[in-house]
Design a protein that fits this description.
About 70% of the residues lie in helices and about 0% in strands. It is mainly alpha-helical and about 100 residues long. It is elongated. The mean pLDDT is about 85.
Amino acid sequence: MLEKKYTKLFIGLILDAIGMLSFTIPFVGELSDIIWAPISAWAMTKLYKGKVGSIASKIAFVEEALPGLDIIPTFTITWLYMYVFAKEKPKEIIVG
């Protein structure tokens, strides 16, 4: 489980870096976002299942599609949400 968690972080960092590449080539890079936005959204649904993946994929699509927002590391933020901030608390066991 721990390995899978950090594999998702590594993949997310790579995908965030790819998304930020459009900043390196002014104007041309923003055109590449037309292709990258749906790929980014699809990748998000594959990394994170359920409601979190669905919401995060929509955010990733909008973030990549709109000019100037590529700097936001959506995959990394989603990973932080899933594994740091929204950790499921152990349920109380009632015996008796």
